[in-house]
Structure formats: C-alpha cells, structure tokens
Amino acid sequence: MKTMRLTCLVLLGSFISFAQVGVGNTDPKSTLDISASNTSSPTNEDGILIPRIDNFPTINPTADQDGMMVFATGNGTPTKGFYYWDNGSATWVSILGTKNTLDEAYDEGGTGLGRIITADSGPVEIQGGDGFLVDSQNFNNLFYVRGNNDRIGFNTVNPNSMIDIQSTGNGSVTNPVMELNTLSEDGIHINLTGNNSISNGNMDGIYVVDNGSASGSGTRTKAFGARMNGSSTQTNHDVRVYEAQITNASNYIGNVYGFYSLNLSTNNGQQYGVSSSISNSGNGTHYGTYNSLTGSGSGNKYGVYSNINSSAGGTHYGVYSYTPSLTGYAGYFIGRTSLGNAPTNRYLMPAADGTSGQVMTTDGAGNVTFQDISSEDSDWHIQGSASSPTSINDNIFTQGNVAIGNTSSSGKTFYVETNPSINSTSISNVLTPVSTGLVKGIENSAILNGTTNAYLLSNSIGGNSNGSSIQAIRNSFSGSGSGTKTGMYNFFTFGFSGTARGIVNYFDNTGIDGATGITNTFDTTNPSSYNTGVYNQAFSTHSSSYLYGNRTLFSGASVSNEAYGTYNVVSTTGTDYGVYSRADNNSTDYAAFFSGRVSVGNDPALNRYFLPGNDGTAGQVMTTDGAGNVSFQDATVNTDNQAIDNIALVGTVLGISLDNDGVAPATVDLSSLQDGTGTDDQQIDTFGLVGNTLGLSIEDDGQPVQTVNLNNLSFNVNNFSLLVVYRSLVWTHGGTGYEKLPLDFVAIDTQSEFNTPNNRFIANTTGYYQINATLKTVNWPSVPSDIGLAVYKNGTLFKEVLYRHELAGQVSRNLNCLVQLNTSDYIEFYIYSTINGLLMDNNPSRSWFEIQRIR
C-alpha cells in the first residue's frame, strides 16, 4: 500500500506543480512534508533514501542540478557519506565539510568553546614518529613530544636529552624557565639507572645549557638557581639550598666531587669558582665556606686546596682574606702551620706564644720557636731607642762614621770605595714606581753662616783617561710620560741675598784644547716638537733693574783670532733664523741694538756692506759706494726719481741722460739700422721728447711719427697700495685649528682695497706686496699647545709661523713675507689654535696687520 500511495502522490505532484505534498500526513507544512509512521516508535523503514552511488558521474552536473544530493556507498573512490553538487566551485562537497581537524573540533558549536576529552576507556594515544607539538603566543615549539627518539623538548623541536628545556629570553621575561610548587620531599627527583658505556661520556641528572644573551643592566644569568621562601618551626630543621649526597662512593672508580665548577669562558668580568654572599641578620654563626672531613681513609685530606698554575697571568693568591675589623682574624689556625715557597725547605711556626721580648728563631731544620735575644754588642740601634734591630724592616742608626769597601772612612760620615773591576757602580739609587707625590733621589740640606763655603755635591775626576765621555754629572731620561723633564733645576728663594748663579763653569788649565760652557746636542726628537738650546723666561711678577736673557762680557781677554759674543751657524731644511728677536713696544724697545760696526750680507766674506756708523740728516737715504760702505746721502742724488733732462739724436747717434745723476749721457749708435742697399737706408728725420712722450719717424717711409709714453719710468707712490688694519674688540678663538681673523677697523687703505664684509685685502693692481703681521693674546693656554699665525692667498695657506707655546705668559707671533699678486687676488689672515677660548688682543700697539705694494 505504501508503494502505491507514493506512486500516486508523485504522479499527482507532476500535474500540480505548485501544490504542497504530504507523505504520511494530510496537512503538509512545506512543499514536501514527510512524517514518520510513529514519531515515538518509528519503524526501521521510516526515513528517506537518497540516490546511492559508488562513484561520482563522469560528466559533471550543471547549474540546473546545483544542490543535488547523493550518498556515496564507500565502494568506489569517494569516502562514504552524503555529498551535494556545488556548481559554483564545480565540486562534490561532503555534508561534513572540512571539520576534520582538532582546531575545528575545538571551535565546534562556537569559536573558542573548547572541548574536554574524557579518557575513561583507555589513554589518548598519538602514534607515529612526528609526535605532538604545542605553540604558544610568545614562543614557537613551546612543548614538543618527539616520537622518533622518545624525547620531550620545551621551546625546541630538537631535544638533546630525554627532557630538554631551552630558554630564549632576553631579560624582559620575568617568568622562570621551570617552577615547582610541591608538598612532597623533593621538588625534582631524578634517578639515573642507565649504564653509560661511552668513553669520556657524561651522566647528567640536571644539565642546563644557556645560549642566551644578557644586555640589561644588573642582569644575572643563572644556570642553576634556587630560592627558598618557605619557613620552619623546628630547631633541628636544616635549610640546604644545594645538597649533594654520595652514599656509596666505593662503587665509583674515578674522582668523586661533591661540587665541581669548571669555567672555560674568556670574558673579562670577575670569575668565581664558588661565590657566597651572606647578608643574614641572624645571630647564628655564619660560614662563607664550611668543610667537615670525617672519613677514615688513609688518603690526604685538605679542608681547602688551591693550585694556581705558574703560567697563569696576574698576581696569584692561594688564599686571600680581607678582614678590616680590629677584633677579627684574617687568618686563624688551630694546628701546625707550615710556611715556605716550595714543598721542601719549609718551616713550622711555633705551636704556642713565647714570653715578652722573645723572637722567633729557626733551628735550620724547619722548626721555629720563640727564643731570648742573645746579649751581644750592637753598633746599630733602632731609631728612637737603644734597642738592637730585630727585623729587616727596622729603621736603624749609628753615631759613628760608616765605611763600605774600606776599613777606614777617611774622616767622612759615609765613605764608599768601589773596585770597578767588581762593581762598575759605586752607589745606585733606585726609586720604585710611584704615581703621585714628590720623590727625591738624593737630598742635601745645609745651613751656612759667616763666610762658610760649601759643596753639597762635589765630584773630583783625576787620572789620564782619554775617554770621550767623562762626565761629572749625567742625567738620563727614559719612559713614555709626557711631563716636563729637567736635567738640572736651581731654585733660589726665602730671603736670599748676594749674587746667584744657576750654573758656573770655570776653566783654568792651559792643557784644555777646547772649552764649552754649555753644550746642547739635538739628535732624535719628535718631528713636531720644539727644541730649545737655552731657554730664559721672566714672568710679569719679576722686578729688577736689568734683565739679560744672554749676557757675554769679555774684558781684557787675550784672543789670537776672533772673539764672538754670539756665534750662530744655522743650516736646516726649515726656515732658518740666525738671530730671531722681537720687541713688542716699538716706541721704546729694540728688537736689535748694535754699538759698533754692523756688517750685512748673504755670504760670510764676499759682497758684504757696512751700515752707517752715524745717522744722517732728515730726508737722506742710505747709499752704497759699491765697495761695501753704506752712508747717508741726499735723496736727489743717485736715486730713481730724476726726470729725463736730455734726449737727442745727432746723426745716427741717440743720446739720453737723467738730471743730477752725475753721469755723462748714454748714447746708442743707430747706423746699424741701414744696410746701404738703398732700400732701408732712410735717415731718421724725427726724434724728440715732448713732455714724457718720445717721438720717432723715418724719412720717406710714408708712416706717421711713432710715439712712446715714458710716464711709467717715473715712480709715483700715489698709485701704490698701503693697508693697516686692526681688531676693534677682543676676539675669541674657537679652538678648531686655523680660523680666519675678522679685522673690522681700517686705519689706512690708500687704494680702498680692503673688503670688510669678507675680511680680506683684494689687490687692484698686479705687483709685489710686502706683508707684516703681528699678533698677541690676552690670555694663554693652560697646557703646552701649538699657536700659529698664517697668511692665506686666494683661500689657500701661503705662509705660516706655527710653534708650541710651552710655559705661562701671553702668546706672540710675528710674520713677514713677500707675495706676488695679480689683479683681484686676495689676502686673508688666519690664527691656529686647538684651545677653545684663546683671546686675541685688540690693542693696535700689540696686534696689527699691514700690506703694501713695493713694485
């Protein structure tokens, strides 16, 4: 009957396209409404059978079948289950979709609802070698169970041991790698029962590898750390942060260590094998290290054993104890105490204290005891007492003379006689290295009254040695320090009167072939250093009637050849100055003052000339006679400002002369201009001077008179440059090397050539220019520094004076030079210093800058 009804209904549905069909009911609620025969007790035939297929059709359905459903039997390629046709993706889609992962199972029923697995019928088992991997938000590979080698890794997919925990924190993660809160006896209990058959292998209960990098300030990297935050109410309860128990050591053949520290790092920080820091405020006894040895074995037992290899660097301390408390003990020993630098030749300290005054004495066999001091006579006593010295460190004295190397002191308080074949040095004074303070090798102090003479250091050298280096006093300096070193320093002060001489040399022997008061030899020094043979200095605090930097006085001496007050021969690769003299006050000072004949010239003997012995009259100029004698003469004679007083042509002879020159007219025969052939033998028909214009023409040449303007033969100083500039205010140097000096006050500028905005002189005319520049500072550097003055031409260094200012006092620099300038070339002045704050004086009598054209 059911089959018949379904057929009828289907037939009926085919005729009524829009009617509702009910199967098993008379009141369908949808287009097709199928009801069970009994909702509470359905039969095994209640349901819908969807078309069953073993494989999907070879020809895909179209859009007309979009949503068509089939049931795969599992006998073909598709997995058993319901599928529908999705024409949009042109695929058969399983009714189950893709929810076949743990993540989708976790989200089933709603995102993030989670699922609980109740394992009450066997364990949850993951098979295969890939294992089980958990990632977190902070770390990849947070937890990994590796199935192919039976290992568990935390923060690693390649565990190196059964449990491998690796931390990649960089100091910002505050959580520990592993933390145990337990009520059992052991936080971690590891039982090693395996057999290690690998040669030189390890069996590690806990093995921590730290490959992290600590960059935070105060960060501590702990391979193993323990924090005890609990409490105890039992008096016999020991708190042991770390305990190692070896209960059956006889089973171990090798060495047994309760604690073993191996440090192979190469960092430069402090290295500690064991470090204990106890800040507990309790009243119990505190031990930094406590060792208790009770074993009955026959081997040696060491409470503390230190072995420092002799090749290790640094200072070695087997035991270092620092106990500044006046009631404490840096070392406290109960038992025999043996001392010595080697295992042999040692000695034992006394087992008990002696009586007052006794000293420790050895018997030569390694036993030291307290003994009474022998009552022998002593010529030396401890300073401040009558007791004989008992220690190598005692300060001692004697009231008699002392002789070394001889049985007699020859009436001298301290006498040393040395056999040079045994000792080449009689007395050697060696001062150990120091960093601060004042040290003295030998100190002599004498109070002299009346007419007493004294030699606080007297050297007498006799014999007939021909050696080339016989020196009464020799000072040798070595080392790398940059401080000032003085071979001899004399200081006169505190009410001293009379004549003071820093160095006096007295030569009184006719056998002396050559005598030199002071000899300075410069061999090898820093190429950038400043070397001075004799340096004299007087500060502003000095006051005297006369002050001589160098003074030479020869009075009545018999000299067979020449005598030189100062003799300088200078021949170097630099700019040489036989004498360099500078006096800052040009109104009263003298850079040079000569009383006597003054000879000047570039050659020692040839083509020299003498300066006049007396001043001339106003307006006269110095003129040479060509034989080496210079005298003052009137400026109208033998000068270059005469006018042309005669120029004429007589026949073919040209004559010319200057007025008041005392020389006959000069003539030139022009007959060579004719060759006698009749082609170029014209006569000069016009030759004359009209004013400063010279005219010349040839007869019958058809050319006008040729003229030459002779104005440039006259020396017109009104066309020449003259510049004097200053600074109106004190200028501060920035300390950056060469800096351009801003000159803002123009005293003289005859051709208006100084450009104030750019602080430069710009030449209007091509020629040769003389430059004079003088600079002085208000203050001076606190340390030796290079200070220089330079002339720049067209922005490039042209000339400079640069040298080191060594001592206190104002800095002065002077520069004079000649320079050839073309039109529009410019000159600037620069100052060199590496000291910030050096002040340039603006007083025009001390700092000035001049430029003048001379040709």
Keywords:
mainly beta; disordered N terminus; 2% helix; 855 residues
Outline the structure in words:
The protein is an all-beta fold and 855 residues long. It has two helices and 41 strands. The strands form 14 sheets. Strands 31, 33, 34, 36, 37 and 39 form a six-stranded antiparallel sheet that branches. β26 and β27 form a beta hairpin. The longest helix has 14 residues, at 2-15. It is flat and about 165 Å long. The N and C termini lie far apart (145 Å).
Q: How would you concisely characterize the structure shown here?
A:
The protein is mostly beta strands.
Helices and strands in order, then pairings?
Elements: H1 2-15, E1 21-23, E2 32-34, E3 52-53, E4 69-72, E5 81-86, E6 91-94, H2 102-107, E7 132-134, E8 143-146, E9 151-154, E10 163-165, E11 338-339, E12 347-348, E13 359-362, E14 368-371, E15 381-382, E16 396-397, E17 402-404, E18 414-416, E19 599-600, E20 609-610, E21 621-624, E22 630-633, E23 644-650, E24 653-658, E25 666-669, E26 684-690, E27 693-698, E28 706-709, E29 722-726, E30 731-732, E31 737-740, E32 745-749, E33 754-755, E34 760-762, E35 767-776, E36 785-793, E37 796-805, E38 812-821, E39 826-833, E40 839-840, E41 848-853
